[in-house]
Amino acid sequence: MREKIELILRELEPYMAELVAVSKTKPVEVLLEAYNLGIRAFGENKVQEMNEKEAQMPKDVEWHMIGHLQTNKVKYLVPYVYLIQSVDSLRLLAEINKQAAKINRVIDCLCQIHIAQEDTKFGFSPEELWQMLQNLHFANMPYVRIVGLMGMASNTDNMSQVRNEFRSLRTLYDEVSRKISSPQVEWMHCSMGMSNDYRIALEEGSTMVRIGSAIFGAR
Ligand SMILES: *Cc1c(COP(=O)(O)O)cnc(C)c1O
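Above: inputs. Below: predicted complex with pyridoxal-5'-phosphate.
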């Protein structure tokens, strides 16, 4: 694991991109091994699994929710989550705000954008994102802060398609960060790239990669 992490970190360095180690399905012992190699940001896609791991891992771990989040589960992760990368509706954002208000904590969120051809993936279309960001001003949600965008490319061998999808996400990120400014947004992250496509994502302007199998092995 050490060599894999070191290689990835060396590749990220020229881009100043951050690594989120996607540890879904892996046991706590494996996460601890990564922790002991210096990893602090871990990505999980299920609330219950993340809760169980959070209880057992050191307190300085940064927990990233990267999977589709149901509104009724939000209350279980707001006390500790570091970044919710998978906000895919205004309704979900409102629920995060409501639960975060109860504990007086501001939760950083990324809006997930649907960039893939497949229709199985969650996320806003670019049009929906613009709409949402323009209404945010009126929505009165002081306990959420939008800090960027997240997207997943199509699961395909067609790397030019993957590249185009990443490019469209980075272009959208540049546009919204130029045009949308409000106390509730701070444009910091364009989260794109997984084990099979992170090098392309970096070339296309990723600031945060989410890598699982290339670190921990196949699931
Ligand atoms: C599982 C997952 C990843 C990591 O996938 P790998 O191919 O194992 O690197 C990244 N992002 C999201 C949203 C995921 O669900």
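The two ends are 15 Å apart (CA to CA).
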